[in-house]
Amino acid sequence: MSTEPSSTPVSDGDRGRPGGGRNRRRGSGKQTGNQNRRPRRNGPQRVSTAQLEAAAAKRAAVEMPPITYPEQLPVSARRADIASAIRDNQVVIVAGETGSGKTTQIPKIALELGRGRQGQIGHTQPRRLAARTVAERIAEELGTQLGGVVGYQVRFTDQSSDETLVKVMTDGILLAQIQRDPQLLAYDTIIIDEAHERSLNIDFLLGYLSRLLPQRPDLKLIITSATIDSERFAAHFSPAALARRGGAPEYVTEVLADLAPIVEVSGRTFPVEIRYRPLSPDEGEAATEGERPAPPPHEVSSLRSGTSRGPRDSGSPKKKGKARGGEEKDLVTGIIDACDELLREGTGDILVFLSGEREIHDAADGLAGHFKERARDPKHPQHIEILPLYARLSSAEQHRVFQPHASRRIVLATNVAETSLTVPGIHYVVDPGTARISRYSKQTKVQRLPIEPVSQASANQRSGRSGRVADGIAIRLYSEEDYAGRSEFTEPEILRTSLASVLLQMISVGVVSTPDDVARFPFVEPPDTRSIRDGVQLLTELGALEEVDGVTLLTEVGRTLAQLPMDPRLARMVIEGSRHGVAREVAIVAAALSIQDPRERPAEQRAQADQLHARFADPGSDFLTYLNLWEYVREQQHLLSSSAFRRQCKAEYLNFLRIREWQDVVAQLREMSRPLGIEMSFQPRHRPASDGARPSPVEGTDIESPSYRQMWDDDTIHRSLLAGLLSQIGMQDTGEVKASAVAHLRGPQREVALKRAKKQARNEYVGARGARFAIFPGSPLSKKPPVWIMAGELVETSRLWARDVARIQPEWAEDLAGPLAKRTYSEPHWSSKQGAAMCTEKVLLYGVPIVSDRRVLYAKVDPEAAREMFVRHALVQGEWTTHHRFFHDNRALLEEAGELEARSRQRGLVADEDDLFAFYDERVPDSVVSAAHFDRWWSRARKETPDLLAFTMEQLVGDASVDTTEFPGTWPQGELSLPLTYQFQPGSDADGVTVHIPVAVLARVVPDGFDWMVPGLLEELTIATIKSLPKTVRRELVPAPDVARDIVAWMRAESPAWEDIVRAGDMAEPFVSAFTRAVRALRDVVVPAEVWDEERVSRLPGHLRMTFRVIEERGRGRSASSVVLDESKDLLLLQRKLAARAEAAVRSAVRGAVGAALAEARAASAASAGAVSVGAAGDEEDPRADAFTGPGGPSTSGRITSARGSSSSPASVGASPSGVGGGSNGGVVGGGAGAGVVGEQGGLSSWPSGLPDGGVLPSSVSTDVGAGVVVRGFPALVEEVAPKVKGQARSVGVSLRILADETRRDVLHAAGVRRLLVSEAALGTGRITSRWTGTQSLTMAASPYANTESLVADLQLAAVISLTSSADEARYDTPSGGPDAASVRSAAAYADALAFVRKHLEDEVYRVVGHVVAALSASRTLEAEVRASGSLALLNTLQDIREHRATLIHDGFVSATPPRRLPHLARYLRAASHRLTKAAENPARDSDLAWRIGDVTSAYEKAQATYAAGSPDAARAAELADVRWMLEELRVSLFAQQLGTDGPVSEKRIRKVLAPNGW
Question: The Helicase C-terminal domain covers which part of the protein (predicted)?
Fold first, then answer.
């Protein structure tokens, strides 16, 4: 596992962070340290003094070979000065250019001084490649084997032994050893090489050593640096500075030197010519005098103009262009042109600097394609060898660069060749001027690895590489102006990276105690305070730090993190995975995140690579993709040989070296985790996806390709990974696409742009601290972005991309965040369901709402306010559900007290809410904040003081009282007794008195009497009535209050008692009549009758008009409840609106009673043989009773009693005098002979069976439905239209129904009886039409009926109506002696009526046909005359005639026309013909007469509307029916007097009937 951070590209250096690793010795050395695997929680085991002494003894016995120095190296000439400085000083700065030999010769100088015996000479290098090559070079010069006197240690490789005197290592290795050896006692000399690079590790080591040196005077420190930074190091390590850090007094430090000794070593440098060849012509022309013009460019036909990047390399800028002069070139083309130019300059190798492995491969491919055979054929006379050089190459491939060679070389290297290594034979350098530089964004808290321009110092280092062996040429692929504008030095890594790892390491080692001490740590260049704060925030996020009593300390998690040699985020994942039993899986993923992606995507084979990689892709998680790949690689390694596995990796676009590194990291992590108690042994928790449950393929992949996806414990793995990625979660931003973004487009282009924009909008996430990012397009999740994701890394290139993402649930983050989650609470409210105060909780994690609008108990936020809400809402206002008896008793007492206040309409009689709150607040403990708390407390408290919370009436109302005779509790009307309630709520609709009417008795309630209100409001009603009168009357009745008292006293003396008035209903004197009489008697003032209109009533205050509330009882027993159907001040309006509901309620009540009665009858019949059957039905219920579904629903039997007598059922009891409020089950109404059972029946074809008393249909039935409510119904035979059947005419049947409205009974019953008679006595159509003459047949064929059958059916119905009408309604030529259909209510009467109809039906039909033919003939004549008239002056007349004719002749007119009016239809139509003739002669007169007819008609329609809005009245309905035909006679009298009228008629007569005072 990595222990070495690097400021260089990942491809060149070691990944990881300072410290955390255990020494692993490989090669010739042996593993050191305690071999016992005991769990350790306090860090690595410290090196003991005995171990150090034993090691020193072994080194003292080592024989040193003779030491020689290459004379050609500049450092050899200064070795005496260097040796003297080292011997005489604790710290020495050796400054020199790269290539001076200081890296390889200074360790030999130290050896010659006797260093390396008491302790080793530690020689640090910033890169693994440099460490290895430097150790090999020193060993070669000493003539020893590597691993002997000279050894090296890098990540995964320890090529050293007990005899090693000079140990070359990466700086990360030395940092790791600080944990085991804080005093660095294993070393007597430390050489920090390439200190000017100022990597994070170097800065930490220098700061640590500056503190350590005063404690260890024997320790020598040699710092080698380029000349650019030597003064800074000399000042930092001056004797005065070291003494000051050691605690020396000021008088001592004042006399010490302020600079450490600096030994300048000149480099082997020759003149270097700089040429600027910018890729873009816009960057400027080459302007320096020493430059020679560039040669003509070569055609590069086989070269790509653009380069591709792997999954982790999208940050490099792609420079597009063509390799032609004056045009922009791409990077590869620029390198080829530069190499061509340099190859013509002479012999010598070329060194090309590039920013990463991918760029090296692209350049190598481009050069190979350009030079063709020269690059491929080693025997070519002009052979050119192209060699890559980067850290991840194998040792053998790296060594090729340093081996002698005959042909020319082009070395493609990362910046590892800039300072650390000297590549032999280099005469020329090509510098694109860029490098990957790790940079931390303080805004987004993201570590980026962008490609940036190098500094001037780095550019000079690069160009200097061409002047080591001879005069050199350096070509810079950028302009001189660009160079001049760059920064002078590379910014130290500590100023541009996350300090989390450094902080963790420093605190765990004990270098600092708290994060605040970091600011005081002796860094060469202190980091920004903000960077330190960001590092602390990250460690706090990971749970590594905690604050105790204001002091920041390392937690147990933090101590474990410090011992895991990897990035703290990744280490935190492993720890969390261990807690959930998935440490192995998480470690595999974490290791994958710590290295470069092992999957490769060459530009020319990108599609093939993607297809092969898709086999491992998981549609919901990129992390699981790594696990799938791991399992596949592991399986293939077991199946294949080493070489075969290498070939397969290459064929499947997998980087073998990275896979090997991946496996090494996992192995090291497993080894490092075992002492910490983290178990990573293999446990098969997954299984390959079977065909039966194969996961859905990733979108965009080949479905036929094999899939290597495994089944994992997804949620557990992701929860563990999330522990290290809390600040890298994202919530999908589903913002709408702005119209302005596509406003400039039209048609298909606009649609395509909208679709693309919507897709992009879905792949848009809001992350921590307001960061906005998108899922990298290479991830399968980018196709269908989830709502919530976590990202393994956020990388900023062209934009901020999330890579290695997975779908998560936001609640996971809440569990892991702990105190990092910020909670806000809003909208405190009372919840009756919860019985507690609730509020809305919003949980934010770094500004991301991981929980929105969650309802939580408000008591957790503000217990005091929650308790107050509980007392006020639950106990005072009753907004909760509880079983406590005291509460229900208190509510009942409050209602009773409230009634007193409402009846008297006086405020302040009853204790208000504040009084009740104070009552409960005094008695309920402070700890009770919800219903649950209350239940627990009250269960104990009520045993000691059961009446603690009980109200008393004295507490509520004191001495206040109200006379209940003035404000009664019920309203009597007839046999009904309706409950009354009182509301004192001014302004509300229900203010005043409300009468509660069960829907089943709604039709029986009349509005009369309610205008008297209740006695207690009579005086106030009288005052309001006086104020509502016209001013001419009102001024005679002042002062109104005094007059009102007199009027009330008079009415109480002269009128019946209030109970008698309201009980009488429509027979009682109205209040306005009594008021009028009283005013006339007391003041001799006459109130005109026209004053008492509806407008005056509407001006009365709302509480002086009765509110009618219709209720319906639902449920039975304890579940019974009353439901308000509607309420209004207008009773008639309610009756019309709820007529169907009222009738259904009556039917329901009666059906239930019938069922009970039949059950009793059957039980009685079974118990006693020979018992009298109940009604005509006997023991069996009429099967037809259930065969018809009418408006009231499926018909079932009901228990009823007949209006003709009391029931003989065993359940029958005495009659109730009051209806509502009296009686019992099966209540009897009336007396007389025995009654029976009446059940609704449908689909009748004859008189209903099963009726009592030999088939008598009672006029009314009643039943007690409980709660003192007696429901009365009115049986009748009614017509019912069958449901519509497609292709068939609607049929009309007859059913026995129980009606709720007595006024409708006779009319509906008569129609039902006639329809039943027609069904039984009807004649065939052929028989009827056979008696028609030819003329009659032709006339009838022109009727408005659809067909002959419909016409004949209507003729027979009209005939039956005429035969069964009363004498005053029958036609003049109808046989007398027929029955009245409305009076047929028994089987015998029906049999007589049927016999009479059968006897006279055929002749009566023939007589009806005669009248119909006459009317149709007149209608046809009128129609012809209207059609023939074409005068424009008669348009209104013609339209009126057409409309009038349509009201007389229409489909169904025969039966719809009253029998006695049918003969007059022909006359009415002939009158219209006469009108047409006269209108042609005098249109003006016709218009005048038509206006008069229209005026009277309007009055008739208004009277009809008034009647419809009022109470049903059979007499008034008959009067209005006569007026309809009086209007026809009026038309005859006005337009055709010569035809005569049926009796006297005039406008005055009609208006007299229509006038309100006419009835």
Answer: 334-510
